[in-house]
Design a protein that fits this description.
The chain contains three helices and no strands. With 159 residues, it is an all-alpha fold.
């Protein structure tokens, strides 16, 4: 009974103490929540920064790969162009020799029937060889057109 009398006598002080204790707990809890929110914001900012850095690194890597592919394609096209120029020079020299042979055979064909037969046979072989050379030249030209388109497409992709 003495406890009840003490509680009845000091009920205001006990109520104030209890309310004060609840208030301190609420303030502490709010402070902890605020600190947690700040920590989460900091972690989120760090994660965003890391993701942006990774994205920029990947973008630079892709850009470098595209640049390297373009340079490789240009170098390959240049090498093919040099090889084609050398082939064209050889073809021109061969055509000049064939033309000289035809002229010699034509001069001889005017004087002898056997030469006319040889001239006709040689001319037929030369036409056949020229036809094959023209076909190869056309195929090479098609390859160059495709290379040009590839380089143009690669350049559009880099820009």
């Amino acid at each position: 009974m003495t406890y009840l009398l003490l509680v009845a006598k000091y009920w205001r002080e006990l109520t104030i103490g209890a309310l004060l204790s609840v208030s301190v707990s609420a303030i502490s809890t709010c402070s902890n929540i605020r600190d947690g929110a700040k920590h989460m914001q900091t972690e989120h900012a760090l994660e965003l920064t890391t993701l942006r850095a990774d994205y920029e690194t990947r973008a630079r890597k892709l850009e470098q790969e595209q640049y390297d592919q373009t340079i490789t394609a240009i170098n390959a096209a240049t090498a093919r162009a040099k090889a084609d120029a050398a082939n064209a020079a050889r073809a021109n020299a061969t055509n000049e020799r064939l033309s000289q042979t035809i002229d010699r055979l034509a001069a001889n064909a005017a004087t002898d029937a056997d030469y006319r037969i040889e001239y006709a046979a040689t001319t037929g072989e030369l036409l056949k060889e020229c036809s094959g050379s023209i076909t190869k030249l056309a195929a090479a030209a098609d390859g160059h057109v495709n290379d040009i388109k590839l380089l143009q497409d690669a350049r559009r992709g880099v820009q």
